[in-house]
Amino acid sequence: MINVTKTFLPDQEEYLQYVREIWERGYLTNNGPVLQKLETQLKDYLKVDHLYFCGNGTIVLQIAIKALEITAEVITTPFSYCATSNAILWEHCTPIFVDIDPKTFNINAALIENSITPATTAILATHVYGNPCDIEAIEVIAKKHNLKVIYDAAHAFGVTYKGRSLLSFGDISTCSFHATKVFHTIEGGALISNHPELDRKLDMLRAFGHSGDEHYLFAGINGKNSEFHAAMGLVNLPHVPKIIQARKAVFDAYDNLLNWDILFKPTISQDVEYNYAYYPVVFPSEEVMFKVMDALRVEEVIPRRYFYPSLNTLSFMPKQIACPVSEDISVRVLSLPLYVGLPYSDIERIAGIINGHLLP
């Protein structure tokens, strides 16, 4: 079976060496030495000053909202994983959906100002598939209206924009280190902040809001992660360049083999060094998409409808806002298998199945 992704696993002995050291120390969690080492190496790799390793890619969104004291309405994208909008709801804010750009699939910055009201406090935008949002336009809007900016950069590890890590933009960027990601710690995530004054606050918010037994300063939460997860990150991090290169080879093969007279995919923004996190393709109709998906599954190839559904259509959203571009693309898109070690013969076979089923 060929799944949409396959977790990269390093040499087992490299990981077990860390496990043995952790076992000998008996220090398993609570900001241990392995976690601190990972944070240092991640900051060096990404060239950022403030990074906090946490439990997963959802809790970091919630902590970011809490740290920036965001309330009321948050402008966001309907084309993302549900963690983006769920985090807004869990923090008792209201998602205000703004439709997406039909080329990049990111939030359409030209439409944001139309949705700003006196209740708007922030913009939470996703770098969809690791493809950068219109960062400059969002920054101008945010400054003009005194809004905070959070980037859900769950897919963006290893991506640079104009020579900077994509994770270094916004008031806070968040990242996921889930096992399906380009860089993973099995489960995990990170907060990256551009504000030194948030340093202690973010650190404490992920650890119940206190330091020791006496200093309870915030209503924090358990956003911590363990030494074992950090160890997986330390072993995986040196492999990231070759992981990206291997994913690029799969990406390029699809580019050369698929029928672009009928299909299309998002346009990667300019000035970007990409990480090839996903390979989404958009079909002429939902009918054709289902036809292709069924044909692939017969051959034990499992793509994913990513992202589906358009989040603005979920019944539990407090405000129903039409986003026709997102609604249209979300029912026609499939993410194809993409991972290190996917054989070229399988890529050819997948492309052949798709090309052979493109007509209604």
UniProtKB/TrEMBL annotation:
Organism listed in the record: Dyadobacter arcticus
SUPFAM superfamilies reported in the protein's UniProt record: PLP-dependent transferases
Keywords: Pyridoxal phosphate
A Pfam family it matches: DegT_DnrJ_EryC1
Lineage, broadest ranks: Bacteria, Pseudomonadati, Bacteroidota, Cytophagia, Cytophagales
Assigned protein family: Belongs to the DegT/DnrJ/EryC1 family.
Name under which the protein is recorded: dTDP-4-amino-4,6-dideoxygalactose transaminase
Coiled-coil region list: none
Highest taxon of the lineage: Bacteria
